[in-house]
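Figure 3 (text version): structure tokens given as input.
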């Protein structure tokens, strides 16, 4: 094991991860500058992202996301970023750090997303309007190794506001089988690649619900039911809280963050094994431990199981779906569902300045961003012009 004080993350290697803790560290550097409501929003967002990622690792057959309609854009609930911006940012990120084999596919995903957004947010669109986006496996050497399809549906909430619900379903269909199944609804016979499907979303208004689309297309996928994922999320909740707390307490403690991130993955795998075994007694023991353990016990467990390198898991998005070998690096793993995963968090423009903090009188690397300069030691900040 590497000593905490000597541990240095390999940020270059970490760019290949589907879920990258360094993005969380970046976001939590400004945590203490945020108002209370924004702090809670950030913590809630981090929890949802980890739960969604765990769901992808254990291959849940269906996952659901809600997009609010803001003017003519689709904005994921709880975020201040449109779907288009998220995917566009991911495309730019992948151009620099991604796999050249996937560049055309990722541009196609962006084109298709823009088209879906345009068609479902326009005023003339009727509730129940649906679009299917097929994301099959990439060619040999692609980072996109799983097979799924998305169904976007325009809905109206109880408050009368329109929103778009995205349901993602794992699939076993080949490109040829997709073409045969979707032939009645689209001109897709000429499609030869995953990119062709991604840039040409398919109208599916004939189906009453998104699940009806799934029943029509899916031949049956060996995946985890949503109810079982909810149980796994209950069991891993304390470890996720421990990870988030460590980010809040010190966004620069790279060692602890990676150990606890490993712990989240390992605890989810432990829970998955018990859920699938049908051992109700052991399952109740895990749920009881998660519900009643003290914070101290959770911290001890996280720091122990987090030293174990997580398993390599398959995933639908490009990148590595795994964790860290705490003897020295990233443990390579699976793949992402969407290029949008690489653009989900807004960059925080920051520079650093070596100076003496006027509040605590310590020599520090102060962070400059958003018109303020902040001290990482005492957490106090001031308008940059006053300290420059």
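Below: residues designed for each position.
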């Amino acid at each position: 094991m590497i000593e905490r004080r000597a541990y240095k993350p390999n940020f270059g290697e970490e760019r290949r991860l589907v879920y990258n803790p360094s993005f969380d560290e970046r976001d939590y550097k400004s945590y203490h500058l945020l108002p209370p409501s924004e702090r809670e929003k950030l913590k809630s967002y981090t929890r949802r992202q980890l739960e969604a990622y765990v769901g992808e690792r254990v291959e849940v057959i269906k996952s659901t996301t809600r997009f609010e309609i803001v003017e003519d854009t689709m904005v994921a609930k709880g975020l201040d970023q449109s779907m288009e911006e998220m995917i566009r940012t991911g495309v730019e990120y992948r151009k620099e750090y991604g796999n050249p084999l996937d560049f055309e596919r990722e541009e196609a995903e962006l084109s298709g997303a823009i088209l879906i957004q345009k068609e479902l947010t326009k005023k003339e669109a009727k509730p129940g309007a649906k679009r299917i986006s097929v994301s099959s496996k990439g060619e040999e050497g692609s980072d996109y190794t799983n097979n799924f399809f998305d169904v976007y549906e325009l809905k109206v909430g109880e408050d009368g506001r329109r929103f778009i619900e995205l349901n993602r379903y794992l699939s076993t269909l080949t490109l040829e089988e997709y073409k045969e199944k979707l032939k009645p609804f689209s001109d897709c016979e000429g499609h030869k690649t995953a990119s062709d499907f991604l840039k040409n979303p398919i109208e599916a208004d004939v189906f009453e619900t998104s699940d009806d689309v799934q029943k029509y297309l899916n031949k049956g996928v060996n995946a985890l039911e949503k109810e079982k994922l909810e149980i796994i999320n209950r069991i891993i909740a304390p470890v996720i809280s421990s990870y988030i707390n460590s980010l809040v307490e010190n966004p620069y403690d790279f060692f602890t963050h990676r150990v606890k991130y490993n712990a989240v993955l390992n605890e989810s795998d432990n829970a998955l094994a018990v859920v699938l075994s049908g051992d109700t007694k052991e399952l109740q023991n895990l749920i009881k431990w998660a519900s009643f353990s003290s914070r101290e016990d959770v911290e001890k467990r996280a720091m122990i199981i987090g030293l174990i390198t997580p398993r390599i898991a398959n995933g639908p998005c490009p990148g590595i779906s795994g964790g860290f070998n705490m003897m020295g690096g990233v443990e390579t793993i699976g793949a992402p569902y969407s290029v949008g995963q690489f653009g989900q968090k807004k960059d925080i423009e920051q520079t650093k300045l070596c100076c003496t903090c006027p509040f605590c009188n310590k020599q520090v690397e102060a962070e400059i961003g958003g018109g303020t300069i902040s001290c990482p030691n005492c957490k106090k900040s001031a308008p940059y012009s006053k300290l420059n």
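The chain has three domains: 4-54+225-343, 61-217, 351-387.
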